[in-house]
Amino acid sequence: MILDLFAGPGGWSHSLTILGARDVGLEWDEWACKTRAAAGQLTIRTDVALYPVRPFLGRTVGLIASPPCQAWSMAGKRLGLLDQPLVHHAVADLAAGRDTRERLLAACQDERSLLAAEPMRYLHALNTVGEPEWVAMEEVPDVLPLWRQYAAILRRWGFSVWTGILNAADYGVPQTRRRAILLASRVRIAEPPAPTHAQTAEPESLFGPGRARWVSMAEALGWGATDRPVPTVCAGGGPGGGPEPFPSGSRQTLANARDRGLWRPQLPAAETVFEPQTRGTGRTSRHGPRTATSADAPAPAFTSKATHWKWSLRSNNQANATVRSIEEPAGTLFFGHRVNECRWIAEPADDTPPENETGAAPEPIRITAREAGILQTFPADYPWQGNKGQQFSQIGNAVPPRLAAHLLAPYLGVTLAPDDFTLAA
């Protein structure tokens, strides 16, 4: 089996499905477990720090681990950095068969910090029976020194090991998400996968195959590189709960915008416009194609007076928030606090303000879970469970499946085809 510690909502698991394999996920979060169940993934709901390793001895070919990153992430208080010496101590002790976790945990500033040492408990026990064959681990960049400690231990046990920082955008993920990676193998040279994308497209040469340009948000979401997408308003609270973006609801908001001259109904027969579509689940989609023969009400579209506005994604409400045009990959998506709400915002495309009655830009619009999932390379119909806050928390903490597939494919003896991942649908 393939053992997946801190399995989350299934980033690694979905990549394994694409590659024709399956894992057993250990996960504590109730809603992540429900998402995994809805996605058909085998899951044991448990505390990884308490679950015994014995059931997996003699049966484990691969071990995956993505410990919770909140203690280390720049999105949080980063108390894990203060606890780092204690985590290194725990890893060294566990590698020698000494369990000092309880004592070290009492000294930690953040109780989640020590979870980054848990994979060593499993690795030490599995190593007694010559397992696993390979290891793949992922965390935020600040954990790289810890991965190097793991690497030194695994090399003593006969593994080839590579550690380093990879950018998910270099592997076709529409997001410049940088992560510390550890890859190890007993049977082959461990090395990072060859990047498939670059910030600027690179043609094929004598030195190797070319690389495509980074995937933009517009491309991933199916908005088109030349279209000016109009995100519709999604009624309901943001990731952290609370009031909806516009208390009067989406219909009234669009009507007010239309009255101000920012929007007008338009149905060009030869073009694709973007509007809500009701799916079987009753949820709202922004990305369905629409033609003049549709029976529904016409979708809002930009008028010629609004062509001076361009859409971007703002990562949160802080002054130093990352703002990326839809023609670029997103910045690192992270959720969990109201200050970290991602919003689509309209910015002037040039120095000339649009000519309308008020001169105001369209209102910011919160990103939906569906869109955030797509930007993480989950399928558009991935069955996220829980309320909005719970869904966004799962999405922000997940490993992008497309990155995970590139990391795992060589160790499964599988060639990853370019069309194995379809983003917007």
TrEMBL record:
Q: Where is this region: Disordered?
A: 229-252, 271-302
Q: What class of enzyme is it?
A: transferase
Q: Name one GO biological process term.
A: negative regulation of gene expression via chromosomal CpG island methylation
Q: Which GO terms describe its molecular function?
A: DNA (cytosine-5-)-methyltransferase activity; DNA binding
Please list the residues that make up the active site: C69
- EC number(s)? 2.1.1.37
Superkingdom as given in the UniProt entry: Bacteria
Q: Which PROSITE patterns match?
A: SAM_MT_C5 (PS51679)
InterPro entries assigned: C5-Methyltransferase (IPR050390), C5_MeTfrase (IPR001525), SAM-dependent_MTases_sf (IPR029063)
Q: Which keywords describe this protein according to UniProt?
A: Methyltransferase, Restriction system, S-adenosyl-L-methionine, Transferase
> What family does the Swiss-Prot or TrEMBL record give for this protein?
Belongs to the class I-like SAM-binding methyltransferase superfamily. C5-methyltransferase family.
| Descriptive protein name | DNA (cytosine-5-)-methyltransferase
